[in-house]
């Protein structure tokens, strides 16, 4: 059976030579015009290689990198990235994708095919594939002559390929959580790669013991049920074989829904502990989060993943609200947790009507659960991490008519999202910012901005000396109203977002977290603290 290669077409002409070359090696090449079209069939027909054609120009190459960087679902697939100056473009993807091979246009076809074959056979050996292709930089065509040294490199690579087993794999694809960053590769743009953050997540598997955190790491990075530790997430239930089997069945029915259920349970629990709701309420929130969508598992995908933040709909709210009532009955009968059932019923009422007449503690539990539910749908509804979902969710929670009205819960939800976007750094602004660096006005802006920043830092340094305080560096997600900035807030591309010597308000903190969703910020900032 032929191995499948996905070819993501660019806006220029299709590279027929590359398609034909792969087809000649008995690969089944499927063409796609856009990311959404590709993702629609990705799970049903997973490819062994993704060829990304971004050769139409600078803007297209930048856009492709942004889309790839923000699509973790594709991370386990080796990438062949075809573009002008492809090496410069792909720096931002290294460390996330299992293997990324840049192919600069023009290229030598036989070398590219050889590199692609080697990459498919050895996904974690991108360096060798790059070496084969890089040996032919300089625009050689199929008919051009090749010197002896280049021919020796190519022959050596082809020999390695011929001796390698490139038949379709018999084992299932390696889960993303088991893939280590390619050996020797460094992420030149982002400060920390996804796998190192996942290791940090594994250090704190219990949502009841997240010191100073509201669960943003798990919210941003967990994309498989196996990313959660059931012994910590549902300690009272892991011994109940019927409950465990039901959760496993949920995973078989819909992997996205199973991950979503555990994400909602984990983060709701983290918020419960951050707000000191107590162990009894925490346990009920976890169960409510796990089974909130139980009655939706057989419904159409547009209901299961509906994004209420992006597309409010009274009709869908009514349908899903009714399903939640069925989930509540299931939880009360099968899990024996009346409190969890009441939380789910309250969520159902909140989703369908404006009136709510229940005790404040039950309101808080339901708002925390529904807030995480809405956030997860907004950020993960497409099946991959969408930082723009964070931007929309924070804006929604800040609105006066938001369904979430409790101020403590609203801030806790915003902090989850703030942690998430500063942990799961995107590159959405990086290339666009640097494309403008040659403009004279941009250079003037940068000089003036840097001068203003130096003055503000000098002022706050003098102020701290008078007041007997010092500077401390903290993550942006830990900023809080009343703090004094002792250093500027800086974007990942080096631009200054907010100068030092500013006392933070609630609105400024939320503005920064919301901005981080669409403009990558450096992870830490200096604030003033007492000398002691």
Care to describe what's here?
It is built from 22 helices and nine strands. It has helices spanning 16-24, 35-42, 58-69, 86-90, 109-121, 126-134, 148-163, 194-203, 216-221, 230-233, 241-253, 255-274, 279-291, 301-304, 314-335, 338-352, 360-380, 387-398, 407-423, 430-435, 440-467, 506-516; strands spanning 3-8, 27-32, 49-53, 79-83, 100-104, 469-475, 489-490, 496-498, 524-530. The chain has a five-stranded parallel beta sheet, sandwiched between helices. It has a two-stranded antiparallel sheet with strand order 6-9. Strands 7-8 form a two-stranded antiparallel ribbon. The longest helix has 28 residues, at 440-467.
Features:
532 residues, alpha/beta, two-stranded antiparallel ribbon, 9 strands, 52% helix, globular
Task: Note poorly predicted spans.
Answer: 136-193, 426-439
Kindly name the structural category: alpha/beta
First-to-last CA distance:
69 Å
| Strand tally | 9
Tell me the number of helical segments per DSSP (H or I, 4 or more residues long).
Answer: 22
Which geometry do the CA atoms define?
Answer: globular
Multimeric organization: single chain
Query: Strand portion, in percent?
Result: 5-15%
């Amino acid at each position: 059976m032929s191995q499948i290669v996905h070819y993501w077409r660019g806006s220029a002409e299709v590279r027929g030579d590359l398609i034909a070359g792969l087809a000649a090696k008995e690969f089944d090449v499927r063409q796609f015009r856009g990311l959404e079209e590709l993702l629609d069939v990705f799970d049903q027909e997973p490819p062994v290689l993704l060829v990304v054609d971004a050769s139409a120009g600078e803007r297209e190459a930048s856009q492709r990198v942004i889309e790839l960087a923000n699509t973790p679902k594709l991370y386990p697939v080796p990438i062949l990235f075809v573009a002008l100056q492809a090496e410069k473009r792909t720096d931002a993807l290294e460390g996330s994708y299992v293997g990324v091979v840049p192919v600069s246009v023009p290229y030598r076809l036989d070398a590219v095919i050889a590199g692609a074959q080697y990459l498919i056979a050895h996904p974690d050996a991108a360096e060798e594939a790059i070496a084969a292709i890089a040996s032919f930089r300089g625009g050689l065509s199929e008919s051009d002559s090749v010197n002896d040294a280049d021919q020796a490199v190519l022959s050596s690579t082809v020999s390695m390929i011929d001796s390698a087993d490139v038949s379709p794999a018999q084992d299932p694809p390696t889960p993303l959580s088991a893939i280590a960053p390619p050996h020797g590769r460094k992420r030149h743009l982002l400060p920390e790669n996804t796998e190192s953050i996942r290791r940090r997540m594994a250090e704190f598997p219990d949502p009841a013991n997240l010191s100073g955190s509201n669960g943003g790491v798990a919210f941003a990075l967990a994309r498989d049920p196996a990313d959660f530790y059931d012994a910590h997430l549902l300690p009272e239930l892991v011994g109940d074989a019927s409950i465990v089997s039901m959760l496993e069945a949920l995973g078989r029915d819909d992997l996205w829904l199973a991950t979503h259920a555990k994400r909602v349970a984990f983060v709701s629990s983290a918020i419960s502990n951050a707000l000191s709701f107590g162990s009894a309420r925490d346990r009920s929130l976890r169960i409510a989060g796990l089974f909130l969508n139980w009655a939706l598992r057989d419904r159409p995908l547009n209901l299961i993943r509906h994004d209420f933040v992006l597309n409010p709909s009274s009709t869908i709210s009514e349908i899903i609200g009714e399903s939640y009532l069925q989930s509540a009955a299931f939880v009360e009968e099968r899990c024996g947790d009346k409190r969890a059932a009441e939380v789910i019923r309250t969520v159902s009422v909140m989703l369908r009507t404006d009136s709510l007449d229940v005790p404040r503690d039950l309101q808080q539990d339901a708002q925390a659960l529904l807030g995480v539910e809405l956030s997860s749908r907004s950020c993960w509804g497409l099946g991959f991490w969408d930082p723009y979902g964070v931007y929309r969710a924070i804006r929604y929670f800040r609105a006066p008519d938001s369904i979430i009205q409790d101020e403590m819960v609203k801030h806790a939800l915003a902090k989850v999202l703030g942690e998430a976007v500063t942990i799961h750094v995107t590159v959405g602004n990086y290339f666009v910012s640097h494309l403008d660096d040659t403009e004279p006005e941009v250079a003037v802006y940068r000089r003036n901005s840097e001068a203003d920043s130096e003055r503000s830092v000098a002022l706050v340094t003098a102020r701290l000396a008078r007041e007997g305080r010092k500077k401390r560096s903290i993550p942006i997600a830990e900023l809080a109203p009343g703090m004094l900035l002792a250093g500027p807030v800086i974007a990942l591309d080096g631009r200054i977002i907010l100068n030092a010597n500013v006392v933070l308000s609630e609105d400024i903190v939320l503005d920064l977290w919301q901005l981080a969703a669409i403009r990558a910020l450096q992870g830490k900032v200096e604030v003033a603290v007492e000398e002691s």
